Amino acid sequence: MPKLSLSARVLWLTSLGLLLVTLAGLLFQVRSQVESERQAAEDNIRSVAAALLPVLRQTLVVGDIETVQQTLDSVGRYRGLARIVVYQAVPYQVIAQTRGKGADTVISAPAWFTGLLNEEIASYQSTITLGGITYAELLIEPSLAMVVENAWQVSRQALIASLVFLIGLVVLLGMMLRQGLKPLTGLAQTVKRFGDGELSERATVAGPPEIASTAAAFNQMAASIEELLAKVRVSEQTNRRLALVVEQSDDAILTLDLEGHVLSWNQGAERLYGYPAQEVMGRSVGFLLPDSRQGELAQWLDRVRHAIAGTRFESQLLTRDARLLDVSISASPLFDADGKRIGEINIGHDISERKAMARALHMAKDAAETANRAKSEFLANMSHEIRTPMNGILGMTELALDSELTEEQRDYLNIVKSSAEALLTVLNDILDFSKIEAGRLELEHITFELESVVSGAVRTLAIQAKDKGLALEWNIAADVPQFLVGDPARLRQILLNLLGNALKFTERGGVKVQVTVDQHLEHGVRLHLAVSDTGIGIPAEQLDSIFKAFSQVDASMTRRFGGTGLGLSICGRLAEMMGGRIWAESVLGQGSTFHFTVELAVAGAPPAPETETPERSAQAVAATCQVMLVEDVPVNQKLVQALLEKRGYGVTLAQDGEQALALLQQGRQFDLILMDLQMPGLDGYETTVRIREMERGSGRRTPIVAVTASALTTDRERCLALGMDAFMAKPFRADELYAAVERYCPQEG
Questions:
Q1: Are residue 522 and residue 568 in the same domain, yes or no?
Q2: Is the Cα torsion angle 622, 628, 630, 634 positive or negative in sign?
Q3: Looking at residues 684-689, what average pLDDT do you find?
Q4: In the structure, what pLDDT confidence band is assigned to residue 139 with cuts at 50, 70 and 90?
Q5: Which of 94, 441, 572, 732, CA to CA, is 20 to 30 A from 670?
Q6: Residue 714: which CATH number?
Q7: Does residue 394 register a pLDDT over 90?
Q8: CB of 142 within 8 A of CB of 80?
Q9: Range of the domain at 10
Q10: Which of these, 669, 671, 680, 691, lies nearest to 748 by C-alpha position?
Q11: How many CB atoms are located within 10 Å of the residue 397 CB?
């Protein structure tokens, strides 16, 4: 049996529903009509009884039975009555009765209709009394047939009207359904064509709102499907291109499942590792690891299961021909369509050449560091070996110059002193340049008076200028702050170098130092210092090269004036370290001006130092001061002892660290220990450590000043860290030695 269409089913269901509703309505109407007829019949009986009782009461009192009968016959003609009886109850006796017209009513209603009306109409019964005397009983029975007939006539008319209305409604509904569902048929045809591949098909949006919205929704869905399929086609093309790129990539690209088995293996992997794809598919990735690195397989599998995108690691992998490759691997998780991790993508790149280069660079770096350490050790040893005898030369020369000498002898000794100082300058330049190149030169940040630095540098070279007959002047502008924070020693070093060069290359005229403010800064000033001379000048094309290391205007300058060619380079580096720069202006044959700038913080005036008269420093202090000199070089022993005893200090000599410790263990007490660092046996560092251990808990701490030919910053820091109090580099001047001793020796009040 073919299935009914949607419209037929809707029509049948609607018709059945309407029929049931109509029948229910008719049944309700029939019952209502019967009830209404019954109620009307009962009301009529009561009305008849109300009119009949007075007449019967009067006629029965006089015993006029004939009139009673006539009255009953007259009333019985009413169609709603079936029977009227007047009777005597005890004993029962009918006085008069009549058959009503309603008793002859013929019921034309069908039996099923009569069966639906299970109704009864109550008879009316009343006692006829007068003056308390009962004369008779009145019984009036209504006609049920009349009630049923009346109800049937009304119901039949209603049923006919309902059926006519129902048929018309069903016909109208069928027409509306046919017309309304017509767009749905078109939609079904459109859907079929769309399903057959005609993706451009669209439904006509028409008909009832429900169907129209369905058609619109279908059109939207069709557009989305068409767009999605277009994207799928583009994605498929992209995937094909990507697959081609992956397959032909120079990088080794492979995928692994969660157990580390190979799922894919591109041509790059074949080229890098030497294995064809068909040989490795399904194998554990461990075959790429050499026996010595099989322990890494567990780590690899852990990355497969837990690694995040972009994980990178390096490993040594084994090729088919047993070569070890350094490989950089980029790992990313692999997911299925549901987002579940199913493995890992590995992209490997051969970094063997880079690793070899890195190893070579590391070896070169180690070699360079070894060479640098060797250079530093060489410089330190050279410094020590040169400064140690230089200390004796300069010290003994100063002692000799303080003695009774002929003029010729004094000239000879001054030449010795100036030559030794020149050699010391060369050594200092080399050491400073080495420290700058190694980045180990550190600047001080202390408060100083600018005028004392400038004037001190000028006074140092004043005798040299006087000997050459040159004017040496200096000027500081009025707006230059008096007290600054920086490294006065390095600032003085720049000035001495520039002034020394100016005096060296000037035969007549003079040299001048000018200091001005270049710019006021937030926390300080930028100073502009210029050293001008009237010397031989510098060719313009060589102005830039003179600040390079080991560079001079020409080689003859070295032979004529001496020097290493490092001085200006060091000055430039120092100026840069102090936030400035250096440059020169020159006219050949007329002179040169060397400019440099430095940035310094401004400071307030420092507290005035406590001073003593020279007589007090040389006598009162010396009278109470006992110094132990720990020195292994006889020349230095004689020099220091002579200088100190000249001022009246008590000096006790110790050849090495063991003798120094022995003197202290004997209970000897000293106000100051001058400690050489480089000694055979127990050196100055270890000796200092043991002295501090001996003093622990005694409440006494003897000042220890390091006296060494080493000028490296690391040595100074090590001395202070081990417990020494100060550091004095050889060669030293007599005034430097006296200042160190006076600083730590007790003074009388």
A1: yes
A2: positive
A3: 94
A4: confident
A5: 732
A6: 3.40.50.2300
A7: no
A8: yes
A9: 6-177
A10: 671
A11: 20
Residues 361, 364, 366, 368, CA torsion sign: negative
pLDDT at 598 over 90: yes
Residue 142: beta bridge partners? 81
574 token code pair: 């120092």
The 3-state DSSP composition of the chain as helix, strand, coil percent (nearest 5) reads 55, 20, 25
What tokens appear for 464 in the block? 């040299």
DSSP string over 344-385? EEEEEEE-HHHHHHHHHHHHHHHHHHHHHHHHHHHHHHHHHH
**Cis amide leading into 609 (omega within 30):** no
CA 675 to the chain's CA centroid: 56
Note whether residue 419 is domain-resident. Answer: no
How many beta carbons lie within 10 A of that of residue 631, not counting itself?
A: 22
Whole-structure pTM value: 0.45
**Six token digits for residue 154:** 């009304």
| Integer Cα distance of 83 and 104 in angstroms | 11
144 and 74 both lie in a single domain: yes
> Is residue 652 packed enough to be buried (19+ CB in 10 Å), middle (13-18) or exposed (0-12)?
middle
User: Could you tell me if 476 and 515 are in contact, meaning their C-beta atoms sit under 8 angstroms apart?
Assistant: yes
* Residue 233 within any structural domain of the chain: no
| H-type alpha helices, 507-606 | 555-561, 567-577
Look up residue 594 and give its two tokens.
């060397």
Joined together, the tokens standing for residue 558 give: 């070295």
Residues 598 and 626 in one domain: no
Token representation of residue 707 = 């006296």
pLDDT digits (tens, 9 = 90+) for 308-335: 776 888 888 889 998 989 988 888 888 8
CA–CA gap between residue 611 and residue 617 (Å, rounded) = 9
Per the structure block, which two tokens stand in for 260?
A: 């580390």
Give residue-wise pLDDT tens across range 440-464. Answer: 678 889 999 999 999 988 988 888 8
> Over the chain, what is the mean pLDDT?
81
In 10 A of CB 677, how many CB atoms? 21
Q: What is the pLDDT of residue 245?
A: 64
Contact 630, 660 (CB under 8 A): yes
Q: Which residue has the tokens 């403010």?
A: 517
Cβ contacts of 93 within 8 Å, gap of 6 or more: 87
Show the tokens assigned to 441.
Answer: 């030169």
Sorted by sequence, the CB contacts under 8 Å of residue 487 that are 6+ apart come out as 443, 444, 445, 446, 578
234 in a domain, yes or no? no
What token pair was written down for 387?
A: 């400064």
DSSP type of residue 655: S
Q: Which two tokens stand for residue 386?
A: 């040169």
State how far the Cα of 73 lies from the Cα of 64, in Å rounded to an integer: 15
